[in-house]
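ok new one. same drill as before - structure tokens go in, u give me an amino acid for every spot. 256 of them this time. try not to just spam alanines like last time pls lmao
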């Protein structure tokens, strides 16, 4: 086999395995993998990144090119690893949707459902606002570079050819979900406190003046206070989430 032929074979092999992992992660990763991104755009981004990153990951790939059966097993394992990485990033992103649902429930707007483009399902008003704004901030702050760096660093965390430990992967996903839910509750904590104070105040008012229809006063007051609180805290909410998202991704990339 000539040097040119060997170079072409190794290059195609590296590109193919790189595309399987990166393309799978890109299909569900925040921002690029959202439902409002056309599928052909996702494909072009995955192909471009695979072409650029394949020389960087070439040292992590087996040499020489394995046989057909081994190659098929490598493709399956790369697909699983890419799916796992994209799912972890998506779970960290879901903290905003969790916070938005809690905020809407505490604000008395839990029944007001709108289409959330981030999850392609019906969601809360606050959840849709925070999810879309969070995606914008990911690109505005160049946080998407961390995701691309994580794809390259995943070759050290999950070497090509090694069988992923399903138990460790399940544990990491469960820890990521717990951390994401905790961040969502922390973001929504001011609204939980305000809603609790409103309910306590309305309960006291009911005992003092039973003839007043408390619910006619409570719901508009609760909505107004929640809007005021959201306008005052939305910048702090998004900055807090960005810092937690960065810490979570770095924790994941360091191997936990």
């Amino acid at each position: 086999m000539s040097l040119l032929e060997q170079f072409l074979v190794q290059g195609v092999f590296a590109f193919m395995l790189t595309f399987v992992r990166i393309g799978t992660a890109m299909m569900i990763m925040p921002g690029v993998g959202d439902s409002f991104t056309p599928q052909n755009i996702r494909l072009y981004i995955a192909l471009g990144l695979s072409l650029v990153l394949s020389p960087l990951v070439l040292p992590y790939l087996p040499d020489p090119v394995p046989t057909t059966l081994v190659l098929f097993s490598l493709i399956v394992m790369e697909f699983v690893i890419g799916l796992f990485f994209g799912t972890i990033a998506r779970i960290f992103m879901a903290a905003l949707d969790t916070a938005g649902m809690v905020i809407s429930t505490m604000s008395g707007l839990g029944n007001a459902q709108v289409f959330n483009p981030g999850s392609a399902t019906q969601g809360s008003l606050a959840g849709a606002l925070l999810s879309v704004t969070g995606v914008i901030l990911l690109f505005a702050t160049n946080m998407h570079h961390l995701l691309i760096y994580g794809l390259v660093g995943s070759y050290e965390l999950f070497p090509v050819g090694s069988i992923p430990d399903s138990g460790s992967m399940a544990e990491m996903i469960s820890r990521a979900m717990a951390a994401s839910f905790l961040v969502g509750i922390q973001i929504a904590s001011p609204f939980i406190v305000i809603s609790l104070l409103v309910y306590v105040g309305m309960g006291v008012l009911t005992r003092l003046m039973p003839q007043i229809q408390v619910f006619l006063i409570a719901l508009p007051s609760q909505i107004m206070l929640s809007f005021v609180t959201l306008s005052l805290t939305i910048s702090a909410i998004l900055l807090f989430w960005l810092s937690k998202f960065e810490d979570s991704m770095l924790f994941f990339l360091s191997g936990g």
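The first strand starts at residue 113 and ends at 116. and btw The helical segments are 3-28, 39-57, 68-107, 125-140, 144-157, 166-208, 214-253.
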